[in-house]
Design a protein that fits this description.
There is one protein chain. By secondary structure, this protein is an alpha+beta fold. It folds into 2 domains: 88 residues; 61 residues, Roll (Nucleotide Exchange Factor Grpe, Chain A, domain 2), CATH 2.30.22. It is built from 4 helices and 6 strands, in the order H-H-H-H-E-E-E-E-E-E. The strands form 2 sheets. A 3-stranded antiparallel sheet has the order 1-4-5. A 3-stranded mixed sheet has the order 2-6-3, with no helix packed on it.
Amino acid sequence: MSKHKQKTAPAEQEELQGGPYEETEQEKTAEEQPNYYDQYVRLSADFENFRRRTIREKAALFTDGKKEFALKMLPMYEVLLRQQTRIQSAKADNEQKEFTELKEGMRMILTELDKAFKSEGITKMDVLKKPYDPASQEVVAMIPSSEEDDGLVLDEIQMGFTMNGQVLRPARVVVGQHAEEA
């Protein structure tokens, strides 16, 4: 053995003797590093939610555009329907070829409009002689009626329409109201 013992620094002695533990550089960086897998999973879920929301919003915008167009077309369609009813109830002479041609032309126009509206899910409400429905009808007036017509729609002032089962335009109606005699 040599006469001279090798002297070590106090910090080195603690480390060699199992003194206070200090983290190594590798351990420090492992804890401080972000978990990229978790970030990927969250980002992937966020993107999927964004994609689904975008699809829903696009469909809603498209439907709203169709509704706006349909609301612009409905008054013309209603006038044609009312005129068709009046023409069909009028008696035409066999000699009036022009009247017959007008009647046929109106029928063809209405047939095409019916096809277009049905393809978009738009249908006319059938409200006459049926109970008043506040969800799809607006009362314009209430008139005295017999007991059997109480609460029934007696006249349709403005036609109502639905689109895919939802009210597109409510019907404006006249409802019968039975007056109780005292």
